[in-house]
Amino acid sequence: MAEPVIIVGSGLAGYTLAREFRKLDKNTPLAIVTRDGGAFYSKPMLSNALTGGKSPEQLAVFGAQDMATQLQAEILVRTVATAIDRDGKTVDILADGATAKRSYSRLVLAMGAEPIHLDILGDGVDRLVSVNDLDDYARFRSELVRAERIAVLGGGLVGCEFANDLCAAGKTVHVIEPAHGPLQRFLPAPAQQAVKEALEQLGVHWHFGSMLAELHRDGESRRAVLKRADDSGEHIDLDVDLVLSAVGLRPRVHLADAAGVQIARGIVVDRALRTSDPDIFALGDCAEVSGHVLPFVQPLMNAARALAKTLAGQETKVTYPAMPIVVKTPACPTVVLPPPDRHPGSWSIDERGDGIRAVFNSPEGSPLGFALTGAATGEKVALAKVIPGLLE
Amino acid sequence: MAKWQCLVCGFIYDEALGLPEEGIAPGTKWQDIPEDWVCPDCGVSKSEFEMIEIS
Could you say which of 3.30.390.120, 2.102.10.10, 3.40.50.300, 3.30.10.20 is the CATH number of the domain covering A333-384? Predict the structure, then answer.
């Protein structure tokens, strides 16, 4: 029998690839190695599950057994891939303290990204958590039962979404962000202002220009010491019960790197999602596709469809059309299509009573990106059509 | 009128509202949406039961 295709990772990237592959190839053996429990869940829903009334158990729409049946795949749960032998085409796996070797015909790395951990001083860091998968989320929800005051580190996409969800669920929420507005990487100033005000109205306390420096135990609660990002020496203390860190992600490249597969910010792949080793592929949050690291759903769905074809024998390049990012902040619906990094141009901003329509134009006047809030989010589809894709 | 939610990304299709910007009129039932329609947020297709009825 042919050696299997092995996928490392059972997040959206790994499972979507497996599903797309099975549509095209019902016979090649398929194995999925996952360090978690192998449940299928929607990661974007983690940051709105509280107000959505969903428990971690309900988020797990299919268990590993169901997935194994649906995908006709062997799913190795609570199993870590520890090393790749590229010459022998095997991967070392570790489960329950025992190691084994598995042969592959093609290996796919769909390992996701690691939350960045800040160095926080103090004996209260036991209450500092980050949420990047369903296991994390289940722990977070169990901590949340006895937590009323939550500090969120980072006013980016994930931080704003969680702040909205926690606040709407009745928690007291503080967001600590070194920049001077929310979603600073994505939004022009007036749109930042709209998100800031809407969340403020909901009850979110913003601490811009600030960073968490220390977290100390204070009986059952925790004392967070915030210092100014400009090093002015000022600091304030906040009493909180739990701190959620959402300061960014770093692609998981260690396994590829240790095997001598080329990495940069992510695992370097071409448009066929192929790494520097012709039998090893990568997609999703761990991959750097033709220079792009895009930890969002739509790019990985496109990558999964293309890679499924390539693995099934029809070499296919991924295309990235203009892919708007929906920010799940119901207090201020927001959609953004970030313009290319450091591209010259300027924002043209139309502030209306019920929302903001901001379009980023090149010096020649062609639209390259946009940010929409409120009622203007309805223009997402029409605007995305006139903006060039990243990889066409 | 029901609401349907994408299992992958959480996008909600509300039959009462439709998706006028995509040419789907308010009041369009889920079963009347074309089979080649894809989730506007993540691109999964209608035909794979990836939308679930939530209310």
Answer: 3.30.390.120
